[in-house]
Amino acid sequence: MDARFTRYSVFYFFYYAALGAYAPYVGRWLDASGHGGYVVGAMMAMWYASRMVGPPLWAALMQRSAVPGYWFVAATLLTTLAFAGFLLASQVTTLLLVMAVFGTFYNALLPQFEAMTLTALAARSTEYGRIRLWGSVGFLLVAATLGGVLDRIGNEAFPLVTLTLLLMMVIAAWPHRHDRPSLHLADAGAVGPWWRRPDLRRLLLVALLMQVSFGAFYVFYTLHLQARGHSGLVIGALWGLGVLVEIAMFWRVPGWIERFGAERLMRWCLALTVARWLLTAECADSVAVLGAAQLLHAFGFAAFHASCMRQLVDYFPGRRANRGQSLLYAFSSGLGGVLGAALAATMWQIGGGRAAFLASALVAALAWWMLRSGTASRSLIAA
Predict the structure, then answer these.
(1) Closest by Cα among 349, 334, 326 to 46
(2) In angstroms, rounded to a whole number, what is the distance separating the alpha carbons of residues 277 and 272?
(3) Which residues of the chain have pLDDT under 70?
(4) How far apart, in whole angstroms, are the C-alpha atoms of residue 244 and residue 265?
(5) How many C-beta atoms surround the C-beta of residue 186 within 10 A?
(6) Percentages helix, strand, coil for the chain, rounded to the nearest 5?
(7) CB of 133 within 8 A of CB of 140?
(8) Helix axes 6-32, 37-63, angle to 10 degrees
């Protein structure tokens, strides 16, 4: 990787290191604090709902700013200050309020930084995966070890550990204070409203459904495995395994996208994700099968995400990159995350982890069908 892009890798590392503490273990912390499945689901729904608010508002602000890099650093600081509220919050109302503020700032960060990264890469956009993989390294190191650490020191340490990682993220953001959109990249014509573009509309809907299918994983995977008797050490190792293969895939996926095409690769990813959720639902007692299922994270997350990013470059060229990132983040990750958390919480209350992951498999299958049907339709028109 070009040394010029090292500072981008460093920020990804600490952003996702903090997420590696938060995403796998916030549900465990809430459960240990005496809150039930609906509260866990509501908290995560609020987290994803903030993705629909923060990124678009932040993108609009950045487009009008002459110093977007300084606003970016300020957002990392506000994110950290907001998360500190979890050190004091205990009632559901307070927890939801803190989550709303924290999520709004934290979720506004990544679309802006993704756009900054793609702008810096310019014509070398296929190299994105090799920079982004360092985020996966950060997530891996934390997610794989924190479960065992919390087994030893107690779940009450979760907010302080995460806060420390967020402070490191603020430091990593400082070298980007002078970053601004490139002025030499071509605009390549008007983009137009996304809902008038069938291919872009389909891409966003498929990305939304994939996110919905991940609801059970992000909200209840740790609790699902705890209910089957697995220790924090084993659960952390399974989280880490998924991220390890994710890292390997981010390194390899640029060549795969060039060889097979982003959309074809996305269809493979969706089919393998269906298999993953079925294995997680039906074979949760077997560490070996769970490990095999986690290997598929390389496709369900890394290859799928990189393929979406590659297609967005075509739809939102040049200085429109931030708009495209915010749209994808708010629509798929935001709305999809809310729907996924709500579906997962409902199915968890009805039938536990098995029901939640079976529902996830069904949603991923629907996304595969939608993408496959769109490809078939275009082939018939071309013929």
Answers:
(1) 334
(2) 9
(3) 1-4, 63-65, 122-127, 129, 180-196, 317-323, 325-326, 374-383
(4) 20
(5) 8
(6) 90, 0, 10
(7) no
(8) 150
- CB-CB contact of 170 with 73 (8 Å): yes
Cβ(8)–Cβ(132) under 8 Å? no
Smallest CA-to-CA distance from 118 within 330, 334, 331, 310 is with 310
Within 13 A of 240's CA, how many CA atoms are on the CB side? 14
- CA 227 remoteness from chain centre: 25
Position 5 in a domain: no
Q: Is residue 108 part of a domain?
A: yes
What span, in angstroms and rounded, lies between the C-alpha atoms of 24 and 236?
8
Q: Determine how many CB atoms are found less than 10 A away from the CB of residue 9.
A: 19
CA distance to 82, 139, 143, 162, 301, per residue, from 146 (Å): 22, 11, 6, 10, 21
Residues 62, 14, 254, 248, Cα dihedral to 10°: -160
Q: How many C-beta atoms surround the C-beta of residue 64 within 10 A?
A: 7
Q: Give the domain CATH number at 339.
A: 1.20.1250.20
Q: How distant, in Å, are the alpha carbons of 1, 32, 183, 220 from that of 333?
A: 28, 27, 29, 17
Residue 339 lies in a domain: yes
Note down the domain range covering 92: 10-179+193-382
Q: Strand, coil or helix: what is 230?
A: coil
CA–CA dist 342, 363 (Å, integer): 13
pLDDT digits over 224-282, tens only? 998 999 988 899 899 889 888 888 887 788 788 888 888 889 999 999 999 999 999 99
